[in-house]
Amino acid sequence: MAATKKKKVAKKKDEKATAKKTAAKKTTAKKSTTAKKTATAKKTTTKKAVKKAPAKSKKTTAKETVATEAAAKNSQKKKLAEDTKIAEEKRLAEEAAAKKAEEERLAEEARIAEEKRLAEEAAAKKAEEERLAEEARIAEEKRLAEEAAAKKAEEERLAEEARIAEEKRLAEEAAAKKRAAEIHQKIKEIAAKEAMESESSNTPPPPPPATPPENSFGKPMMIAAACFILIIAMIIISSFNNSNRYFIKNTFQGMEIWKGDFAPVSKHKIAFLEGVVYPGEEKNCYTAKEVLPVAFFHYINAADALLNADGDIDFKRARTYIDNASKYATDTKDAETLSEYRTLFFQVSLKPELDTGHDTEAVSHTENEATHSATQEASEASPEIEAPAPSSHDKETEAPKVHEKTPHGESSHN
C-alpha cells in the first residue's frame, strides 16, 4: 500500500515537471516570435525612411530620424516591458506550481502520517483489548476455579458432617436396639424361669421338711426388681441425654428455641427471637454450641445498635439486651464480648452525667453497675447455663428484628 502511494506521488511530480517544460517552451517561442516581428518592423521603417530621404529636406530628415529613434526606443521599451511581464508571469506560474506541489507534498505526507498514526492507534487499541480480554479470561478462570474449590470443600464438609451425624444416629439406634434386646432377653429369661417353676409346682410335693420352707416369691421378686432398676436406669440415661438437647422451631414471626427437660421426651421453650431464622442445617436436635450463639449475638447486635445510635439512648433496654445475652453465653469468647459491651455501656451511660457535672451520681451508678456485672460474670462460670423461658417483661423488652442472612428462603418448622 505504501509503495503504491509513493508511485502515485512520483507520477504526479513527473506530470508537473512536464507541464513546466511545456509552459517554458511556449514562452520561449512567444518571445522569439515577438522579437522577429519587432526586427521586421524596424527594417521596414528604415527602408521607408531611406527611400523618402532624397525627396525631403534635412530638417525633415532629422525629425524623421528622431521620430524613428523614438519609435525604436518605444518599441524597445515595449519589448522590455513585454519581456518583463512574460518573465514575471513565468516566475509567478513557477511559484504557484511550486507552492501547489509543496502543498500537495505536505498534504500527502500528512495523510500518510495520519494513516500511520491511525494504524498504530488501532493496533495499540487491539493489543490493549486483547490484553484486557486475556486478563478477564484468566480472572474468570481463577474465580471459577476458586468457586469450584470452595463448593467442593463445602460439599466435602457437608458430606463429612452428614456421615458423622449418620454414624452417630446409627450408633444411637444400635445402642437402643441393644438395650431393647437385652430387656427382651431378660423378659424371656424371667418367663422361662417362671415356666420352669410352674412345671415344678405341678409335680407331687416333696415330703414336708423338718425346717419351715423358704419364701417361694423371693427369686421372682429379685428378677422383677432388677428389671425395674434397669428400666429406671434407661429412663435416667434418656432423660440426661434429652436435657442436653436443644430444638428449634422456625415460625413466620421468628425463631423459637426449646430445651429438653430431664425426662425422656418433654421439652420447654427458653427463647423467642423475633425476625430471626436459624442459619444452620436443619436437624432433629442440636447442641448448646449450635443454638445458643444465635440468641447471644441477636441480643448483642440489638445492644450495639442502641449504644451506637444517634440522639437519646434507651439505656434500660440496652442493659436488658446485654443481660439477656449473658444468659446464652457458652464460652470465654462470649464472656469477653459481654465484658466489652458492659464497658461500652458504662462509658456511654456515664458520658451525659460527667458532662453535666454529676460526679457523685456517676460514681454511685458506676459502683452499682460494676456489682451487677460481677454477679453476672460469676453466674456464667459454668460451661452451659439453662436459659429460662422469657417472661412478660422480656417480651416487652424483646430485641428488634435482626435480619440475618440465612441459606433458607422461607421460615420452616422442624
Automatic annotation (TrEMBL):
Parts of the chain that traverse the membrane: 221-240
Record keyword Transmembrane present: yes
Top-rank lineage group of the source organism: Bacteria
Biased composition (Basic residues): 1-11, 44-60
Transmembrane found in the keyword field: yes
Annotated stretches, region: Disordered: 1-83, 193-216, 366-414
Ranges of compositional bias, category Pro residues: 203-212
Bias-annotated ranges (Basic and acidic residues): 392-414
Recorded coiled-coil stretches: 84-170
Ranges of Low complexity composition bias in the record: 30-43, 63-73, 377-391
Alphabetically ordered keywords of this record: Coiled coil, Membrane, Transmembrane, Transmembrane helix
Annotated protein name in UniProt: Uncharacterized protein
Native species: Desulfocicer vacuolatum DSM 3385
Phylogenetic classification of the source organism: Bacteria, Pseudomonadati, Thermodesulfobacteriota, Desulfobacteria, Desulfobacterales
